[in-house]
Amino acid sequence: xxxxxxFAETLYLLMEDFEYTIAELEDDIFSLLRDDFQLTLTExxxxxxxxxxxxxxDQNIKLNVExxxxxxxxxxxxxxxxxx
Length: 84
Known about the structure:
Layout: H1 4-15, E1 19-20, H2 22-33, E2 38-44, E3 47-53, E4 61-70, E5 73-83
Antiparallel strand pairs: 1-5, 2-3, 3-4, 4-5
């Protein structure tokens, strides 16, 4: 089992300042985690985040994101990654 706090820090360092489609985000997380996971997009009061859940992590991880759209395609910019 991986330590979620260390994994969240690594994830943020790799993702900061990049825009992702959901498929790209899932691919990058899988390449780091190398295990099954669930990534759920949630919107609350105009704020978006992904909740990353995996049996290989000791806690869930929350990826706060900003949503953008270019040429009809939706992208997400990761603004912070925290243990949920």
